[in-house]
Amino acid sequence: MKFKFSGEEWKKHYKTQISLLKRSRKQKSRLRFKRNSVIASDVGSQLYCEKKVEMGYLYGTIKTESMVLGSEGHEAITEDSIKVDLKEAWKEIFTSESYWISELLLLANYKNLYLAGRPDTIFFAKGAPVMIFEFKFSKYRSSFPSHHIQAETYGIILNKLGFDTSSLFYTIVILPPYMVSEKKKLNDLSREIMLNFWGEKLYKKDSSTLLRGKVNVFIQKFDIHLVEEKLDKMLEFWKKEREAIPTDNQNKCLICEFKKKCDFSLIPSV
Asked: GO MF terms on file (predicted)?
């Protein structure tokens, strides 16, 4: 079903996004590692260990088992999706009654720098984002601050692109590793969560938790004011206003692929 919306509205937003993408590529970088933008997933990784993010840029990313698992999981989630180009995606967002989109490239200007990212999935209704979905395959059952700041950064980007985020929520879905192979369940999961969200009136709460077998779902109301305060501290690193802060968790160092190169490693050298 299509709802009535100015035919020029989606074109205006699409052209704005294209213009931002072009400008970000041409602009001389003032950020660390000569980046043109700060990626939402990097912001999340900063809360895990900022020093690890830095070393990934200095020495190159080393593929770990968890990274491979995450890639396989996201491929399974989007396997049956219909590929559309950026122009078609923006048109559907603003002309469809409701619209699901996965891995949509988003980029916005935020306090004189560019934020970028590809949310796992976003559900739009009548041109407004309703829910951001982030899927994490993990042996742990809880969500972590790094998961939340990544999803919240997507919310900031949507807001700065002109979307109404006053009713926006985000969902962190924690899945056990074995579910990578259960493609049917993965494909249905987002819609099942939204049915629960509406049916149980979870939109009236700031936060909710759903348990679906071995899957834990954490739903949170997006609060732009709380997010900006956290995000600004993270961006100090990218603006070269301070150095990387290493983790104080020895267990993170123990499984880190850079532990032998890191001067801040909490693992005693042999």
From this structure: single-stranded DNA 5'-3' DNA exonuclease activity
